[in-house]
Design goal:
Elements (H helix, E strand, L loop, with lengths): L11 H13 L6 H8 L3 E11 L2 E11 L7 E7 L5 H17 L5 E7 L8 H17 L8 E5 L5 H14 L26 H13 L3 H7 L9 E5 L3 H12 L3 E7 L2 E4 L6 H11 L9 E3 L9 E6 L16 E5 L8 H10 L2 E3 L1 H4 L2 H15 L8 H19 L5 H8 L4 H24 L8 H20 L4
Parallel strand pairs: 3-4, 3-5, 6-7, 6-10, 10-11, 11-12
Antiparallel strand pairs: 1-2, 2-4, 7-8, 8-9
Helix pairs in contact: 1-3, 1-16, 3-16, 4-5, 6-8, 6-12, 6-15, 12-15, 15-16
Length: 474
């Protein structure tokens, strides 16, 4: 999804620092260690020429490693004309806290290439991606134990395949070369479930929040996903999969916004049918049974849960007072500015923060990295054994009861877990446990004002623990 509001140069990282400073007041840590945690360790800004047609174009790009308290560092590569150093620094910092919250043993990093993928051919994209990778290699900013990129806005499996191929070309004897990047095609060392991981994590996080009766009562809602109304901003990879799982989980999606407009239906929108419509027409607009509405106005539609899944700064001081939802689930990075958050908190809007809610992508990237290092597909060693154990269990039960199991019962008990099952299960476990750890911090009686601050407190405490375990101030 392209920019919905003009980005604010040199303010996104300052927003992250504001959130950090607000949380640091609730952690008993020396100022020197706090400074070590909050600022970026390494910032690499590069410019390199790439031949485009009959001429050369100089490409501006970045890679930022925010924290080395754990290695490798981890973070996606964004392909956008809006990329700037401040944005990449902010996103790298958020990755550090995100990894800490969900107990993924990485430091935070982020990359960006200042181009518009929509305006470039596949051949031009490949040349730029491979050249960017070679620049990272030159400065030791990529490697299975150093820094592991991943897809982000404007990039996907294709670009990750080019990166791993380029890296393997430079290091032909590197046994773990495939672990230099995640988000790859399954055929090249990727993992099943990675594409939908962020959206699925968003669903698990919102579902967990809505499962707690005490909180739902405070919001004026009944527990559970069923019947809750949702507005989703963005219908890219994260937005589509968030909408898909919310719909399948019983939520009613009444509006979806994209770069060229938005649609609304009080009766609900089926994301699967909408995706087919977009593939056919090139747009979500004019979807049968819906009304076209302004893309900005969609954020202000009354609903139970608003899910911004586009870019940062979408909910700001200019529109926060017109937001009419009970919960905001931040599927995007930094969609709510600190100024807007103050307004929303005063209105009683519950914000599930990005540093927790969209951590599904890095969680499953961690699973992929482990798979690459172990050189074995998840489920390969145990699936048949589990199926055999299930058959034996059925056989024993049939002998004991004198009754035959039905086909559906047999299928349920005999089934062994494959890679996708294990990925989904691991992600669900991560999102549930992490949400409750943050909520426990919020409810601890220490005066923490909101869930975002609680999430930062959890992250800071875990990072401090890592430094204390080392016994050395780096």
């Amino acid at each position: 999804m392209s920019d919905i509001t003009e980005k604010r140069e040199d303010e996104f990282f300052q927003d992250v620092l504001k959130y950090f400073d607000r949380a640091a007041k609730f952690v008993d840590v020396s100022e020197g260690l706090l400074d070590q945690i909050k600022y970026c360790n390494s910032v690499y800004r590069m410019k390199f020429p790439v031949k485009m047609g009959d001429s050369y174009q100089v490409i501006e790009a970045y890679r930022v490693e925010h924290s080395h308290h754990k290695l490798p560092t981890k973070g996606g590569i964004r392909f956008s004309t809006a990329v700037n150093q401040d944005e990449v620094m902010a996103l790298a910092a958020l990755m550090t806290y995100k990894c800490a919250i969900v107990d993924v043993p990485f430091g935070g990093a982020k990359g960006g290439i200042k181009i518009s993928p929509r305006k470039l051919s596949a051949d031009e994209m490949e040349r730029i991606t491979r050249r960017y990778t070679s620049e990272l290699i030159k400065k030791n900013f990529i490697g299975p134990g150093i820094d592991v990129p991943a897809p982000d806005y404007g990039s996907g499996e294709r670009e990750m395949a080019w990166i791993v191929d380029t890296y393997a070309t430079f290091f032909p004897n590197e046994l773990n070369a495939s672990a230099c990047v995640t988000g790859k095609p399954v055929s090249q060392g990727g993992i099943r479930g990675r594409k939908e991981a962020t959206g699925l994590g968003v669903y698990f996080g919102i579902r967990e929040a809505l499962s707690i009766e005490e909180d739902c009562k405070a919001w004026g809602l009944t527990p559970g996903m069923a019947g809750k109304t949702f507005v989703v901003q963005g219908f890219g990879n994260v937005g589509f999969h968030s909408a898909k799982f919310i719909h399948e989980g019983g939520g009613k999606i009444i509006s979806i916004a994209e770069w060229d407009g938005a649609i609304y239906s009080a009766d609900g929108i089926n994301p699967h049918a909408l995706e087919a419509h977009r593939i056919k027409t090139g747009s979500i607009l004019n979807f049968p049974g819906t009304t076209n509405v302004d893309k900005y106005a969609a954020l202000e539609i009354e609903c139970d849960v608003l899910v911004p899944a586009a870019l940062e700064n979408q909910i700001n001081a200019g529109n926060a007072d017109r937001i009419k939802c009970k919960i905001i689930g931040e599927a995007a990075n930094g969609p709510v500015t600190p100024e807007a958050e103050a307004i929303l908190n005063a209105k009683g809007v519950y914000i599930i923060p990005d540093i927790y809610l969209n951590a599904g992508g890095v969680t499953v990237s961690y699973f992929e990295w482990l798979k690459n290092l172990s050189h074995v597909r998840f489920g390969r060693l145990g699936k048949r054994w589990d199926e055999s154990a299930g058959r034996n269990t059925i056989s024993v039960l049939e002998d004991m009861t004198g009754r035959r199991a039905t086909d559906s019962q047999r299928a349920l008990i005999e089934r062994g877990a494959d890679e996708l099952d294990l990925v989904y299960s691991g992600l669900e476990e991560t999102m549930i446990n992490s949400y409750n750890a943050i909520r426990d911090e919020l409810k601890s009686g220490s005066g923490i004002p909101d869930l975002r601050t609680a999430a930062f407190v959890v992250a800071i405490k875990k990072i401090v623990q890592s430094y204390n375990t080392l016994g050395v101030f780096p």
